[in-house]
Amino acid sequence: MSPLVAGLVQVGILIAALAVVYRPLGDYMARVFQSEKDSKVELAIYRFARIDPRAEQKWSTYAYGVLGFSFVGIVFLYVIQRVQSVLPFNFDRGNVPEGMSFNTAISFVTNTNWQSYVPEAVMGHTVQMIGLTVQNFVSAAVGLAVAIALVRGFVRSQTDRLGNFWVDLVRGAIRILLPLAFIAAIVLIITGVTMSLKSGVDVDGQVVANAPVACQEAIKELGTNGGGVLNANSAHPFENPNEWSNLIEIFLLLVIPVALTRTFGQLVGNKKQGYVLLGVMGVIWSAMLTVIWVAEANGLRPLEGKELRFGISGSALFANSTTGTSTGAINSLHDSFTGLGGGGTLLNMLFGEMTPGGVGTGLYSILVMAIIAMFLAGLMVGRTPEYLGKKLGRKEVTAAAVSILAMPTVLLIGAGIAAILPSTQGALNNPGEHGLSEILYAYASASNNNGSAFAGITVTNDWFQSSLGLCMLFGRFIPIIAVLALAGSLAAQKKVPVTAGTLPTTGPLFATLLTGAIVLVAALTFVPALALGPIAEALL
Amino acid sequence: MTTTTNRPQRTPDEVRSRHAENLGHQVGAGIFDPKQLLKSFPDALRKFDPRHQLRNPVMFVVWVGSLLVTVFAVMDPSVFTIAVTLWLWFTVLFANLAEAVAEGRGKAQADSLRKTKKDAVARRLTEDGSEERVPGTDLRIGDLVVVEAGEVIPGDGDVVEGIATVDESAITGESAPVIRESGGDRSAVTGGTTVLSDRIVVKITTKPGETFVDRMIALVEGAERQKTPNEIALTILLSTLTIIFMLAVVALQPFAIYSGGEQSVVVLTALLVCLIPTTIGALLSAIGIAGMDRLVQRNVLATSGKAVEAAGDIDTLLLDKTGTITWGNRRATEFIAASGVDERRLAEVVRLSSLADGTPEGRSIIELCAEKYGLSAEASEHEKTGDFVPFTAQTRMSGIDLDGRQIRKGAASGFATSDEVRATVDKISADGGTPLVVAENDEVLGVIRLSDVVKPGMKERFAELRAMGIRTVMVTGDNPLTAKAIAGEAGVDDFLAEAKPEDKMALIRKEQEGGRLVAMTGDGTNDAPALAQSDVGVAMNTGTSAAKEAGNMVDLDSDPTKLIEIVEIGKQLLITRGALTTFSVANDLAKYFAILPAMFAAIYPALDKLNIMHLATPQSAILSAVIFNALIIVALIPLALKGVRYRPSSASALLRRNLLIYGLGGIVTPFAGIWLIDLLVRLIPGIG
């Protein structure tokens, strides 16, 4: 089998697998958030935390819940890193430095999982398991909860209640992420991913670091987290031993964001509404895959920075999926990609992580973009714009605008300052346009809560640790607050009935419009910056 | 509830031609005269005031940018910086001009209205019944004033005593005088109109300065213009885009410095102004003013721009049957002979009875005689010798005495009818028609059925409305059976029969609870609550003050079918905004291709591959983009004022069409435009 055919077979298997689970998983997730019943475990949690699971919250209360929970998570993560030396299973890895702890705490709570540290040299098993892995679950569950709250805004009418954050959080973690991660971990172990509490393993006299990889690997992909237990991430043979584990990991990182479109369709009572979002995500994902794949296959040194066991197709597929979701795991060095291929992974993030995006975040991001697209489209058909039966007025446009503005703002400010700081020159592996690509990539990754690294840039100085930390923080929570405010104002509205004058949002016309909006917003915002980085590189 | 209006009766031909015009689909537009640009120039200059610019965030950024560039041009003058500076100021000027032109058209209208506001002297009645002369401006609500033939009515009010003909042409432009009388639905008079005959006593209902004419002046001048909800939402979106581009441009400088190609402030500002949505930003307020203006041109006054926008959103249209959908019971549709009477003979007698009858009913009878029985529509010389017997309230019949034959037609109560004829009469009444009994020398020969006839073209209009997603509901006092028949004939979606004002109100509430927006017309005082409740309530100018007060629009022509045009104008307003926004944003692609290579080809020669327009030099490329950006505003002023073409069609079809024209067109146009401008600009020494 030629590499091209093998690659296409891989893509085929991936899409087929996603198609098989799409309906059952999507419908199951819809039921999880609609169900009136609580399991015993959940009831025990609610009793312990003194939560009334039936008490519905306003958008602001919901937002306080998200922010409060995340803040506590950040403080907790920071503290356990700072006192690691007294925790068990630390393998004498000592306390984590301040800047690094700050950055890492934010990184894992914001579902970014940007890693400015070498895991096997810095983090012990305790911090990994009770800190980072727990956040792998709950940060994904927070994204899921916010997405569901926004969907409720469309579904409900004339109410100021959006559901209960704590219930959505607990259900997302316990009913969706935990069972799926459990199954995934076992499957990964079967493919050869390691699972050990030992600090290392002796290979021919050389000690190679080891960890309970499989259980963390599963949620790393499934929760679109991406923070590896080992520094080489999914390029490491213990995390990703062969083509099958590679394909399974790509499947895992795509599965929830993809199936959520079905959940969305179910919840709004029109499955086509979900299919059209999936279609848009799929079109952009496929187009970007083609760009990256072709660019890499025709590069000067096609296999530089890639694992031979994955080849070009396995690397391109992984790179496209990890940047298209907000995962950020890597199985190859994006820094070694061609100008066009590397630019492609960068562009994937600059789209705002919605093709298909992270767990929950992908859905709410594309819905925000749909609101902007429908606002313009509504005007062009001569009606006050509406989407899914809700009018898009001043409040809705403002919330959507704030949500969209956050990422480019922190990204461009951060990267702009970084570009002229004298210290930056020393942190870069490469000068010129490729160096600028490295800077842009780092800030795009942080601001979009992706977490993948272009590598080639050393981000351990205080400026990078703190500025990237703030990018992650604002890039995550400003959109969340805006999205919840949006959900609140949507829920307060009456539902507008569908008439012949309503612009249908299930057909190819809407799909084209939405695709255009996503591409155009990213292109118009970032083309000047990209011109001096990847575009200049690609045109050479 | 009143349904009929007393507007001057139009002949069917007139009405048909009006409908034909309307069926021409396109919402007609005001004509744009390039001379207006020149006339509005002084106003445009006044708008350079920063306080004025602040109202428009996009143009304010251009204004600040121009100021900034001016400083740099003064400090370090070159042909390029001076040219860029000038064209940036032109951009602001053109935006001002667009607004000034739109406002100027309203001003002309306001001036002619002001002329009607002569300082009328009012003859106020005092409590003891004597008259005192006071200036019109001293009148208070509740004052009673006397107005006699030849005098100008000093303020808005209701006639409480008397009847008079009034010339309202100053406001409506309609030269035919109208009748105003106390009581009923024709009691409202407007300040500034002239009484032509008789004497009336008017009770003043508005304070001076808040009269109808005052409000009209304020409206057409745009003095009270506030941003509408949709305009605000769009402004937020445009501001967001502006912020994004400011970020992109500001962040570009450090990236450029990093890459070893620091840019001048002039170039960066030029890039920023080209990228932010100046086209729509410059034209946005002109579009809003022009939308109101289009309504005024159709003799409709809206109390707010919000109402115009709401008109575009209407889901349900409540239309009174009589006068709107049908002519009323005015057309003869059938002659029913009494038993033993030959139908032909009946027709001949019927014709004679109506030969001298000039009423619409009479004419329709002659037409039916001619169409169905082939009888002459003209009276012969002999027939003209007959004595015409006019209709009186006492006899309730009319007719002709000819050759000793006494031919009469009229209400059944005036004749001795057989049971059989009585049954026919009852049946016609029950069907919602009007029966006229015909007799010769007291022998009842038969009955004429006058029916409601649906106006021509209504079915097509309703089909159009349906395509636009608007449901039409016919409201009538008829029984359900009759209502259903007419509803079917007219092609409305639903009807409300035996409707009382409460029913109309309940229907509006029900529709609104389902999230629908409702529009209706009305003129009577008992329509007022429903007019107030509906989202778009169009009061007829002939209606009562209460109705005019309750609605959010007044139609000076008192033409209920105009509601349909109002909806189209509302839609056209939104479409124009959306289309120009799309166009504006789509333009940016070409500007990137022009400016980015110009800025950076010096450090990365490979970027020159992006210069697909082959612009001569970096300076000419940037200047050409700036010039295009400014000129496109002027080029689009006529479109902003006229509004983009609107044809009623489905939402998808509209979107597809507008995306193609303004989206794709917006991408292509600037490539051509910038390329052409560059051909000229490159000839300037120091640039090419």
Automatic annotation (TrEMBL), chain A:
GO terms, molecular function: P-type potassium transmembrane transporter activity; potassium ion binding
Transmembrane segments: 62-80, 137-155, 176-197, 244-263, 275-295, 363-385, 397-421, 467-488, 509-531
Function: Part of the high-affinity ATP-driven potassium transport (or Kdp) system, which catalyzes the hydrolysis of ATP coupled with the electrogenic transport of potassium into the cytoplasm. This subunit binds the extracellular potassium ions and delivers the ions to the membrane domain of KdpB through an intramembrane tunnel.
Alphabetized UniProt keyword annotations: Cell membrane, Ion transport, Membrane, Potassium, Potassium transport, Transmembrane, Transmembrane helix, Transport
Membrane topology, as annotated: Multi-pass membrane protein
Localization, UniProt: Cell membrane
Name of the protein this chain belongs to: Potassium-transporting ATPase potassium-binding subunit
Superkingdom to which the source organism belongs: Bacteria
Gene designation per UniProt: kdpA
Annotated source species: Lentzea waywayandensis
Statement: the UniProt record of this protein carries the keyword Cell membrane: yes
The UniProt record lists the keyword Ubl conjugation: no
Family the entry assigns: Belongs to the KdpA family.
Subunit structure: The system is composed of three essential subunits: KdpA, KdpB and KdpC.
Family annotation (InterPro entries): KdpA
GO cellular-component term (any): plasma membrane
TrEMBL record, chain B:
Top-level enzyme category: translocase
One Gene Ontology cellular component: plasma membrane
Reactions catalysed, as given in the entry: K(+)(out) + ATP + H2O = K(+)(in) + ADP + phosphate + H(+)
Subunit organization: The system is composed of three essential subunits: KdpA, KdpB and KdpC.
Role, per record: Part of the high-affinity ATP-driven potassium transport (or Kdp) system, which catalyzes the hydrolysis of ATP coupled with the electrogenic transport of potassium into the cytoplasm. This subunit is responsible for energy coupling to the transport system and for the release of the potassium ions to the cytoplasm.
Domain P-type ATPase A stretches: 122-221
Places the protein is found: Cell membrane
Key words of the record: ATP-binding, Cell membrane, Ion transport, Magnesium, Membrane, Metal-binding, Nucleotide-binding, Phosphoprotein, Potassium, Potassium transport, Translocase, Transmembrane, Transmembrane helix, Transport
Family: Belongs to the cation transport ATPase (P-type) (TC 3.A.3) family. Type IA subfamily.
Name by which UniProt lists this protein: Potassium-transporting ATPase ATP-binding subunit
Topology of the protein relative to the lipid bilayer: Multi-pass membrane protein
Family annotation (InterPro entries): ATPase_P-typ_cyto_dom_N, ATPase_P-typ_P_site, ATPase_P-typ_TM_dom_sf, ATPase_P-typ_transduc_dom_A_sf, ATPase_P-type_domA, HAD-like_sf, HAD_sf, P-type_ATPase_bsu_IA
Highest taxon above the source species: Bacteria
GO molecular function, one term: ATP hydrolysis activity
Active-site residue numbers: D320 (4-aspartylphosphate intermediate)
EC numbers for this chain: 7.2.2.6
Residues reported to bind Mg(2+): D523, D527
Record-listed ATP binding positions: D357, E361, F391, T392, A393, Q394, T395, R396, M397, S398, K409
Source organism of this protein record: Lentzea waywayandensis
Transmembrane segments: 56-74, 80-98, 232-253, 265-289, 589-607, 619-639, 659-677
Taxonomic lineage: Bacteria, Bacillati, Actinomycetota, Actinomycetes, Pseudonocardiales
